[in-house]
Structure formats: C-alpha cells, structure tokens
Amino acid sequence: MGYQLFSVNEEMNKNPLGTLTALKKMGYQDFEIFGFDDEKDSYYGIKSAAFKKMLDDLNVSATSGHYSFAPYLDKSDDDLRRFVDRCITGAKNLDSKYITWPWIAPEQRTIDNFKLMALKLNKIGEQITKAGLGFAYHNHGFEFESHGDANGFSIITSETDPALVKLEMDMYWVMNSSKYTPGELIDAQPGRYVMWHIKDMDKKTRDYTELGNGSINYLTLLPDPVKSGLQYYYLEQGGNFAVNSMTSAAESAQYFKRNLQKYL
C-alpha cells in the first residue's frame, strides 16, 4: 500500500523519520517522494544515500518520485539533460523505479507549451530509460481544459512515445475535470498507466477529502489493474483535512485496507 508524501509534506520536512514511522504503523509500505533538491542530492534535507538507509531501516520503499521539471520547460536541452542526470542519481540512490513529471505552472499551460512539453517528455524518457529507470507523466485537471479543438492531455498522450513516457493516472483529477472515467482512459491506452493516485472528492466542495468520505465510488470505479499495466499505486490527499494530514492518512488507510486493497 503506497502513499504520496506530498500529502504530509509539512510533516516530512519537519520530521521525516517520525512521519515515515507513523505512516508505516498505519499500513503504508511504499512511498512516492516529493521535493528533491538536485543541487544537494537530498530529499527532505537528507542526502539521498542517508534517506535510503532510513527507508531500509524501516523496511519500506520509495518506488517513484515527483521531480521539478516545470522550470526546465523553456530552458535549453543541455540544462534539462544535466538536471535529469541529477534526478537519475537521486532516484537510483533510493532504488526508485520511476521518475515522474508531475505539474506545470499556470502560465505555462498553452497549446504551444503542451507540444513543447511532449518533445521534452520524449527526450527525458529516452535519457531515463537508457539509465535503466522508468519515466511517467502525472495528470492534474488542467490538461483536460479545451484549447479550441485540442487539450493538453490529448497532446501528451498522442505526441509522446508510449515506450518512453508512461502515465500516472490521478483518478481524482480525472473525475473532477475530464469527461472520461479512469477505465475509459485505460481502454484508449492499455498498458500505459503504470501508476495510480487514489484519492476522494468532497461531495459539496469537490476539494480533496479522506478516502471513503467523498463522491468517488471506487468500489465500482477502480479499473482493471492488469489492463492498466499497473505496477504501483499511491493514496493521496493534498489538503482539506478533516483534522490534520496524519489523521487523514490513517483514515484513508483504514478505508482502503477494509474495502479496496483486495482488488489490487
């Protein structure tokens, strides 16, 4: 059972060992990291090798990470290549399997930039694949916004090489912002969705909420993991906590283990 650590980012930056220890007690065994300092080769202020030892001591893993590619969208290929090399070093030090591009800034969300990003994704994917790791793109909702006859998601999925650029489906954002279900997206790109984010949507505000507390009925919505190509999944809640982020992590873990884990 995986957890995206952006959900507890403040706690991780204050006390990574204590936070990971508490998450493990809730039943989480695998994590997706957020916040790599490429200049210092560190996660949460800890050198990558030392952070890996912390994971090993707890007998947990970090199979993917979200890395800050957005600032490199309009930088040179050489700058991007150097950054990717540092990400590869960090990810290999953690024994991660995937490096993931998670986001672009609001001012970057134009059709021309989505086309540019598709080119960059292919280049990054080739570099990372040659290094023996996997590369994926994680969707939010903005990719589904229409720009005339196109949208960012259609450009990303049609203009990138499926062998080099895998997909991490955020099911909350698919349900929040697209006209598709997760299953329909997988039908169009079978085998490409190697990772999932599983989180719920508040029934009134449509914000995040604890798993099982919202409007997304995963009992009927969870797609076929084999058809998806699923390798790893991460529960997540980026905010709107009923009490606090750690309580929400515990409540989501309980719901998932009770109702959904058997399907994965």
From TrEMBL:
Which keywords does UniProt give here? Isomerase
Xref: Pfam families: AP_endonuc_2 (PF01261)
Q: Which InterPro entries match?
A: IolE/XylAMocC-like, Xyl_isomerase-like_sf, Xyl_isomerase-like_TIM-brl
Stored Gene3D superfamilies: Divalent-metal-dependent TIM barrel enzymes
Per the record's keyword annotation, is Translocase included, yes or no? no
Q: Which domain of life is it from?
A: Bacteria
Q: Which residues form the Xylose isomerase-like TIM barrel domain?
A: 21-218
User: Under the GO molecular function aspect, what terms does this record hold?
Assistant: isomerase activity
Q: Isomerase: is it a keyword of this entry? A: yes
Q: Which PANTHER family match?
A: HYDROXYPYRUVATE ISOMERASE, INOSOSE DEHYDRATASE
- Please report the name of this protein according to its UniProt entry: Sugar phosphate isomerase/epimerase
Q: Which organism is it from?
A: Deminuibacter soli
Tell me the organism's taxonomic lineage: Bacteria, Pseudomonadati, Bacteroidota, Chitinophagia, Chitinophagales
